[in-house]
TrEMBL record:
PANTHER family: CHROMOSOME 10 OPEN READING FRAME 82, HYPOTHETICAL PROTEIN LOC681006. Residues 100-150 form the Sperm-associated microtubule inner protein domain. This is Sperm-associated microtubule inner protein 5 domain-containing protein. Pfam families: SPMIP5 (PF22573). It comes from the Eukaryota. InterPro entries: SPMIP5 (IPR043246), SPMIP5_dom (IPR055215).
């Protein structure tokens, strides 16, 4: 039977090659022989490759049809109950707060090729698989965020401490004398960015205030 099929296939190929004027698979890659020899060799290779592909598909279908089913690890009732529980918790029409924010250290879905922080500016992705690179990069990015958060907390704390110290110092300083109670001859001009210059005249030391206005 196989011999008859082979003979018929060869006869069909010969008939096609004698009447074919169109495309011949892989003929452009063969040189040095006649059109008939090239076409015969190319069509034979193409026919054999197609037949092998069909045989492989048929063998795979046979294996899938004859292989026994795997034993189930749980009953159908358990699977349905798990689905019902998940539906009752995550149904969009259920009332309540649903936390949908993902953790920062959770790796991306397989096949995702989007932005990964710290991936191209560090050496965390060299010599490791993709999931290890994403894990290291996200961990480093989380450490940087935690460090920045701690610095902000310290800055806020020291700012509040400085403000409290300033308030205490302002409250502890004595109040300046009222200008209306000081005689006119003892009044001094207001000081703004002044420089005190020391002079000694006739053995009497006095301070002269020079305004920078």
């Amino acid at each position: 039977m196989l011999a008859i099929c082979s003979i018929r296939s060869c006869e069909l190929l010969t008939f096609i090659l004698l009447t074919l004027l169109g495309y011949v698979p892989q003929r452009f890659y063969r040189i040095g022989t006649t059109y008939g020899d090239d076409s015969m060799a190319c069509m034979t290779l193409f026919h054999n490759a197609t037949q092998r592909s069909r045989d492989a598909q048929n063998g795979l279908r046979y294996i899938a049809a004859t292989t026994p089913k795997l034993p189930s690890i749980c009953s159908n009732e358990d699977v349905l109950q798990a689905l019902y529980d998940y539906n009752s918790k995550h149904h969009p029409y259920m009332l309540g707060t649903v936390i949908t924010k993902r953790s920062l250290l959770e790796p991306p879905i397989p096949g995702w090729t989007g932005f990964v922080p710290r991936a191209r500016v560090t050496e965390l992705g060299y010599g490791v698989p993709y999931h290890e690179m994403t894990k290291n990069c996200y961990q480093d990015f989380k450490n940087l965020r935690d460090q920045a958060s701690k610095l902000d907390q310290l800055r806020t704390k020291w700012s509040s401490e400085f403000q409290r110290f300033r308030t205490v110092m302002e409250n502890s300083l004595p109040a300046p004398p009222l200008l209306s109670l000081v005689p006119m001859r003892h009044r001094q001009p207001p000081l703004t960015a002044t420089t005190a210059v020391f002079h000694g005249t006739s053995g009497i030391k006095q301070w002269t205030f020079v305004s920078c206005r």
